[in-house]
Amino acid sequence: MPQRSSVLSPNANLTGGRTLLRLATAGSVDDGKSTLVGRLLFDTNSVLADTLDHVEQVSKRRGLDRADLALLTDGLRAEREQGITIDVAYRYFATPARKFILADCPGHVQYTRNTVTGSSTADVIVLLVDARKGVIEQTRRHLAVASLLRVPHVVLVVNKIDLVDYSEDVFTAIATDFALLARSLGVLDTHCIPVSATEGDNVVTRSHRTPWYDGPTVLGYLENVDDTRLAVGSELRFPVQHVVRPQSAARAPWASRAPEVNGDYRGYAGKIESGRVRPGDEIVVLPRGSHTLVEAIDTPDGPLDLAVAGQSVIIRLNSDVDVSRGDVLAATDAPPAPIRDITATVCWLAERDLTNGARVLVQHGTSITKAIVKSIEGVLDLDFESGTVPCWRPTATLTLNDIGRVRLALASPLPIDSYREHRATGAFIIVDDADGWTLGAGLAGSTPLTARTAFTTQSDQHYPAQQGRGPS
Amino acid sequence: MTTDQLRPLTELQALESESIHIIREVAATFSSPIMLFSGGKDSVVMLHLAAKAFWPAPIPFGLLHVDTGHNFPEVLQFRDEAVEFYGAPLKIASVQDYIEDGRLRERPDGTRNPLQTLPLLDAITKGGHDAVFGGGRRDEERARAKERVFSMRDEFGQWDPRNQRPELWSLYNGRHLPGEHVRIFPLSNWTELDVWDYIAAEKISVPTIYYAHERHVTFRDGMWIAITEVTPARPGEVVELHSVRYRTVGDMSCTAAVLSAASTAHDVITEVGLSKITERGATRADDRLSEAAMEDRKREGYF
After folding, report:
1. Same domain, A44 and A103
2. How many independent structural domains does chain A possess?
């Protein structure tokens, strides 16, 4: 067995460093989200002198006696003028342990569209509530979306704890409410932290004003949350981006650093979306279904004896099977059956409505196909009370920010997974055939939220695979 | 399978793979991509990633440099060497040509960065390019923080920040109408420090002026400006010889140096890691023109 540092890449310089964690924030208008994000950036020294100067000047102009950290996340001019946040913004900060990519999702305008977008790639959702208000309708909605999108971890920041005199009772009541809600929505990994973003309590440094709280700070939590991607432990999915067949063109001087290949080289380039692969593994080429073995995993830095989710590589196969862009190389254990009829939860992201019979495009992995909306079976009612779960209302159309149940007929079969088991290859987007706009986000298979009742037991939290799985 | 092998990718592995995936998607789904290449560190990292994305085949698209005519000679020399080294054809759109034949006029302040937009859009239109790679990063500036990896441009090259497509998972949607094109930012999620970490890890060559060297400079408007034929000393200014380096290498007329003794990529990483001034704030006079300077130029079709 080679050393760990050479397992994933022969280039040892890329392997020694810190890891990458993707977060998304969610909260309603006055929960202090911008201040929390500003505080994280400020206290990790990610805000540099000239940006801070600017914030201090603006704060002074507005008559504040200290820098308003919320201004650090000020974005477009229209947002500054209207004092609102319009769109998802990406922020970057780092500690010696990890680099963080934070999708900062505005709380009010188009909250579903933004939260769905931010959650789609997130390992952790940072959800805020105001300690004076506790769990409110918006919290339930955001958590429902996080559950739908299968974000692995949710941390609840109980903010403005200073405004309730750092009361343990208030915090405990909110944490209990939240735990019940999370359980009813099937969110497995949650944690609650009492915070004052303005004062800095428990954001980066532990507060002496909450002696009753012995858990991590927000940053401490983010640095330590388990980031062994669920995807890595799952079955292999490798959507083929293109077929590599170099026409023995003159090699640039750069390529002398890379391995030599011979004239009849043929490999398949792509990014591993889930699982892992080794030379010698048996795989199935979807949608055709031909079985073959992996001959080698190639990179310009040299061949690999193991590659895992997230890596861009070239896979060579040991037989002349027909493979082209759009195909998926998958583990032979429970590969998704190529299907032409899919049922999915669809988050509608466009101003124009979705109606029965609509003709759209479905983009999945590296393939795209025409599709017709066969039926819209319902829209999720997210105005649910604590102790219950969202339910479906009948509807004829989906409008902006709706989450609906949709049946689609595809022009050609796609090997779509159940989203619950494969976040990357269970996902698709719906695209307007005429102008190319991204209309909706699709999560294939059944919707977890409504399939359960309140206060289900742990044993209900695993579902048998149904939609889009192997031949029945 | 031990848990050891299930450890996640490192930051640089994850960023490299994400960028390579993006670059391959563009080559597979657009008919005529082109990559902007100035010889600056971000563009050379992007070019390096393109070479890795298509190995063992050559890079399947060309490069474009919008030359303001005010580039540092060291950068132009490096540009030509890098093009040769990575093996991609380079086209040059010249701001100087546009000024000479009257299509553009010199600005009163002498800054040519804002003048790049027209030659850029002309080159995109004439070349029939439907995808244009740029080395922009979201950490550079607040207008960029909201830009997508695949960023739509209308027929006039304009960006509409309020009307962007949602971008989910790693499903990039590049479909567009005739006349529109898409700007592609494979380095969206990289920070300045990531770029330097990668340059050090991959031993990527960058123009020499990124490293400390002696130069005659003057302290003007809070920045160290090199004394060149484009930026001569003004009456009364004190010219000093200092060890400096550049954090960005744009137009000489609006790019300032920082005092530095960093002579290797590792020195730069130490310096960048400790620096208290953002990259653009330290050295780009053009971003200081107004509070929304970058946003305005982006809307007009600048990168």
Report:
1. yes
2. 3
